[in-house]
Specification:
By secondary structure, the chain is an alpha/beta fold. It has 14 helices and 20 strands.
Length: 494
């Protein structure tokens, strides 16, 4: 599917489908009015007769009369004109593209992005349109023997543009396309079952992303390598498994060597049974999504590799399974992390922080300008923030504010939780330097406080995506979040 900036009036477009906005009240939008005039008041008539109401989410597809060069007209409700903001626009576009996919029509030109939209400039409107398209077009089929969905018929969609707006729109299309492909990669990896998406599979994916791209390099540490550098915390999580653990290191070199890299660290537990502290049965299958932090890092690298911005990026993915067995780590075991700190593993289900501890220590050797880790870390984050905003914990106000802003701009929002020193008290152990759980209170914060023990003096932020990385119920599946937030953040920086 190709998007393009299309100049010209709606009456002049030769396309299978003209997508035109209508509001719930007031005069017709300029693009729609022009078509209305050319068709003897066809659209005003449809609104008058109640064939379409103009409410957001309304859609009406009709054959275009011969006075137009287009074959069909799709009217899309946009609600009240003065309330048409980014969210309503997103919804209108989603409905338009969803209907378009059902039509099997090959081409379309949309005038929805020609409207004034609160909180979205030309660039943003184009970027949203492309991302919404790809989000709706994604289908998980890999492990299904029959594909109940017919393949997507559309080959190209035009977004209305003028000579003045063309550049911004083309940039939005480019960024939207790369981000969306990163999101799709992340979703696919998240959705794959844990018997396919193993640590080895993530290694293969990292290598595949880097193949043929001179700015990308991949290094992989195996268990022997990790043992040599003292990653006792990470290795304690994989102790009960047959599948070998890996530490994947990705480098994107888009700027001078002297520029410090941004570091992304993603939790890659390909299945989290809880280990000896076994999780209850219901919904345990969803713990295949416990590698969505890793999938985010791979998705962001995929997008960045396409856009080639002038920055340096390091990605670290500690990845293994968390399973019980005779060789598994037991509650009460004390392990030594790469940093030298000893950890009493009071609950083997608090494993994400154990693999991240060593990954956060390791990443410091690349002298990053800042570190962002991404992890499906705590069920408590779901309790605190639900499925709308990801949790953000950080030792830096500047980095926090940049991430909050990027999240809002990308409609992939986060919310900051505090990290006062007082929370560290909850991690005190009688038998080690610290313990890996802090009790019932403030579970997301104590997890963050644990990670903070391993970041040294680095500027660091932690994103807890336990509530946002996947949906449950009938729409069960990975969301690809927070790839949009991180692409936004990185593209703002160069
Ligand atoms: N991967 C889970 C967190 C999780 C649970 C994410 C449910 C999404 C839904 C993590 O490894 C975990 O098990 N955390 C424990 C920590 C606890 C033992 C301190 C949790 O949240 O229960
Ligand atoms: Mn766990
Ligand atoms: Zn986990």
């Amino acid at each position: 599917m190709r998007f393009e900036a299309k100049t010209g009036h709606a009456t002049e477009q030769k396309t299978a489908c003209l997508i035109l906005p209508v509001y719930a009240s007031g005069p017709l939008p300029a693009s729609t009015r022009r078509v209305d005039t050319a068709t003897d008041g066809l659209i005003a008539g449809l609104l008058e007769d109640g064939d379409i109401s103009g409410k957001v989410g309304d859609a009406l597809l009709i054959k275009a009369p011969p006075t137009l060069r287009a074959d069909r007209i799709m009217l899309i409700g946009c609600g009240e004109r003065d309330k048409f903001d980014r969210k309503q626009y997103r919804k209108a576009v989603r409905v338009a593209f969803g209907s378009l996919r059902q039509t099997r029509l090959k081409t379309a030109v949309s005038y929805l992005n020609g409207e004034a939209i609160a909180g979205a400039d030309m660039y943003r409107r184009a970027r949203i349109a492309v991302e919404v398209w790809h989000h709706g077009a994604y289908r998980y089929t890999t492990t299904k023997s029959t594909d109940e969905q017919p393949p997507i018929a559309q080959t190209s969609i035009g977004l209305t543009a003028t000579t003045a707006t063309g550049t911004a729109i083309r940039k939005g299309i480019k960024h939207g396309d790369a981000t969306a492909r990163g999101v799709a990669l992340s979703r696919e990896l998240g959705n794959l079952p844990a018997n396919i998406c193993t640590p080895g599979h993530l290694v293969a994916e990292a290598r595949r992303i880097a193949r043929g791209n001179s700015k990308l390099r991949v290094q992989v540490l195996d268990e022997a390598d990790m043992k040599k550098i003292g990653m006792g915390s990470l290795l304690s999580v994989t102790a009960g498994t047959a599948e070998p653990a890996k530490l994947i290191v990705l480098h994107y070199d888009g700027a001078a060597k002297s520029r410090q890299p941004v570091a992304l660290v993603g939790k890659g537990i390909t299945f989290d049974s809880g280990g000896i502290s076994l999780k209850p049965g219901p919904a345990m299958d969803e713990m295949k999504f416990d590698m969505c932090g890793a999938a985010t890092v791979l998705g962001v690298f995929h997008a960045i590799a396409t856009l080639k911005p002038a920055l340096n990026l390091v990605g670290i993915i500690p990845t293994c399974e968390n399973l019980p067995s005779g060789t598994a780590t037991k509650p009460g075991d004390v392990v030594t992390a790469m940093s030298g700190k000893t950890i009493e593993v009071l609950n083997t289900d608090a494993e994400g922080r154990l693999i991240l501890a060593d990954a956060l220590t390791y990443v410091q050797k690349f002298k990053p300008e800042l570190i962002i880790d991404i992890a499906t870390l705590t069920g408590a984050c779901l309790v605190a923030l639900g499925r709308h905003r990801s949790g953000l914990l950080s030792n830096s106000d500047g980095l926090s504010n940049a991430l909050l802003k990027a999240g809002d701009a990308a409609d992939d929002p986060v919310w900051r939780l505090p990290l006062d020193d007082e929370y560290k008290e909850l991690l005190k152990s009688n038998f080690a330097d610290l313990q890996n759980i802090g009790g019932r209170d403030a579970g997301t914060i104590t997890a963050g406080a644990f990670l903070a023990e391993f970041v040294g003096d680095s500027e660091w932020a932690h994103l807890d995506i336990a509530g946002t990385a996947w949906l449950t119920g009938s729409r069960k599946g990975s969301t690809g979040r927070p790839v949009p937030l991180l692409c936004e953040f990185l593209l703002n920086r160069h």
